[in-house]
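Fill in residues.
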C-alpha cells in the first residue's frame, strides 16, 4: 500500500509533560485570551477557577480540554474547609492547585498574552517553564553566567565541582512585558510606564536561580512549579472580600515557598519566559487593597528572613504547619488577621491531605535536610 502524505511527514514529538501538567487560570472575565495561546495550550489540561458571582456565565473557547469550578463548586467540594479559599481575589487560584492531580502546574492570568522576543518570534512560555523546571537549580553558589544548564551555557571558572550537579527546581518564575508588576504607589507615580522592546529595553535573555537566603517578590501571573515538591506551600492566602488585605496573594506564597525551598534544598528560578501583560489594574482600587500589605511587609519580610525551620521538617507539609505556628506566634502580634491566616494555613494543609491522600508524616516528596 502506498504511504499517505500524512505518514510521510516527520513525526512531531508529543508536547513535553502533556499528561503531567495542568494550567490553572483564575478569572472574573471571559477567556478569549486563550485564542492566542491555542497552539501552545491546546494539548494540555486547563483548570479554570471562576471567581465572583457563580451565576455569571464565563465563556471558554471551544477546543480546549478543561475543568471548570465556581464558588458553589468550591463550597460543595471543600465544605467548611472552603473558608481557606479567597473570594474576589486572584488568590482563588489556590483551589486549582489543590484539585489538580498532576506533578506540575503552570498558572497564568486572563490578561496575559503571548509575548515576542527581540527578534519578533513568539515566546512559547510554557515550553520555557518546563525547561526551567526539568533542569536543576544552583541556589548554593551563584553562577555569573546565569543558568549553567541552558543550551550553550556552562559553569564559570571557580564554580565548585561538588555543586555542579545542582538541586531539584521547585519553581519557575516568569516575567512580563508591557504592564510591569508594580505596587499601587509606583503605578500612580509612573502611570504611562510600559516595558516594551522599543522603549526601555527590559527584555533580558536570562534565567537564574534566586540564591539561598535571598527572598524575592514573587508574581503569580506567569508561574510554574513542581506540585509534588512545593504544592502544599503554594497557598495564596486569605485575600479579597472579608479580608483587610488584597494583592498580596503572590507575595505571601513567594516568601513561604522561598524559606521552605531554602530549608529543603530546592531551587527557585526567575527570568525567562516573558508573557505580555496587557491590562493595568486600577491603581486607586489597588491602593485600597494593598495599603496594609505595604505597611505590614516591613515586618513580614524580616520575619521570613529570620526564620529557622527545624531539621525534622523534611516535607513541604511539615514545613508549612511549622510556618503556620510561627506566623501565629510572631505576626499575630501585629494584627489579628495573621491569627486567621495561620488558621487558614492549617485548614489548607488539611484540605491538601484530604484531596491528595497525603499527610505531613507520609509525604510523597521528603527531602534530606542538611
Ligand atoms: O476578584 C478577582 C480579581 C481578579 N481575578 C483574576 O486574577 C487574575 C489577576 O487579576 P488582574 O489582572 O486584574 O490583576 P493584577 O493586578 O494584574 O494581578 C497581578 O498582581 C497580583 C496582585 O493581585 C496577582 O497575583 C497578579 O496576577 C486575573 O486572571 C483575574 O481574572 C480573580 O479571580 N478575582
Ligand atoms: Mn493583570
Amino acid at each position: 500500500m502506498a504511504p499517505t502524505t500524512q505518514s510521510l511527514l516527520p513525526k512531531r514529538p508529543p508536547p513535553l509533560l502533556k499528561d503531567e501538567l495542568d494550567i490553572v487560570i483564575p478569572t472574573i472575565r471571559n477567556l478569549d485570551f486563550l485564542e492566542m495561546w491555542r497552539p501552545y495550550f491546546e494539548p494540555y489540561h486547563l483548570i479554570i477557577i471562576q471567581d465572583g458571582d457563580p451565576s455569571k456565565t464565563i465563556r471558554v473557547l471551544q477546543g480546549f480540554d478543561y475543568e471548570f469550578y465556581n464558588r458553589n463548586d468550591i463550597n460543595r467540594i471543600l465544605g467548611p474547609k472552603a473558608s481557606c479559599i479567597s473570594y474576589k481575589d486572584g488568590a482563588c487560584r489556590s483551589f486549582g492547585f489543590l484539585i489538580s492531580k498532576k506533578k506540575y502546574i503552570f498558572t497564568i492570568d486572563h490578561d496575559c498574552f503571548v509575548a515576542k522576543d527581540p527578534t519578533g518570534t513568539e515566546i512559547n512560555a510554557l515550553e520555557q517553564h518546563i525547561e526551567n523546571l526539568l533542569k536543576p537549580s544552583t541556589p548554593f553558589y551563584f553562577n555569573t553566567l546565569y543558568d549553567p544548564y541552558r543550551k550553550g551555557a556552562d559553569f564559570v571558572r571557580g564554580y565548585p565541582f561538588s555543586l555542579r550537579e545542582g538541586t531539584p527546581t521547585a519553581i519557575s518564575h516568569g516575567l512580563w512585558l508591557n504592564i510591569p508588576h508594580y505596587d499601587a504607589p509606583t503605578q500612580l507615580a509612573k502611570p504611562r510606564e510600559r516595558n516594551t522592546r522599543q522603549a526601555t529595553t527590559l527584555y533580558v535573555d536570562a534565567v537564574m536561580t534566586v540564591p539561598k537566603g535571598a527572598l524575592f517578590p514573587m508574581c503569580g501571573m506567569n508561574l510554574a512549579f513542581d506540585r509534588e515538591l512545593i504544592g502544599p506551600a503554594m497557598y495564596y492566602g486569605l485575600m479579597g472580600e472579608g479580608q483587610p488585605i488584597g494583592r498580596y496573594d503572590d507575595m505571601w506564597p513567594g516568601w513561604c515557598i522561598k524559606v521552605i525551598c531554602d530549608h529543603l534544598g530546592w531551587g527557585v528560578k526567575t527570568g525567562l519566559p516573558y508573557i505580555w501583560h496587557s491590562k493595568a489594574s486600577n491603581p486607586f482600587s489597588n491602593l485600597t487593597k494593598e495599603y496594609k500589605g505595604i505597611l505590614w511587609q516591613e515586618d513580614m519580610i524580616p520575619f521570613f528572613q529570620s526564620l529557622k525551620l527545624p531539621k525534622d521538617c523534611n516535607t513541604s507539609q511539615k514545613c508549612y504547619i511549622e510556618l503556620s505556628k510561627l506566623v501565629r506566634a510572631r505576626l499575630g502580634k501585629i494584627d489579628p488577621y495573621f491569627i486567621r491566616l495561620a488558621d487558614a494555613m492549617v485548614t489548607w494543609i488539611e484540605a491538601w491531605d484530604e484531596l491528595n491522600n497525603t499527610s505531613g508524616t507520609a509525604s510523597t516528596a521528603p527531602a534530606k535536610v542538611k
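The chain has a mean pLDDT of 92.
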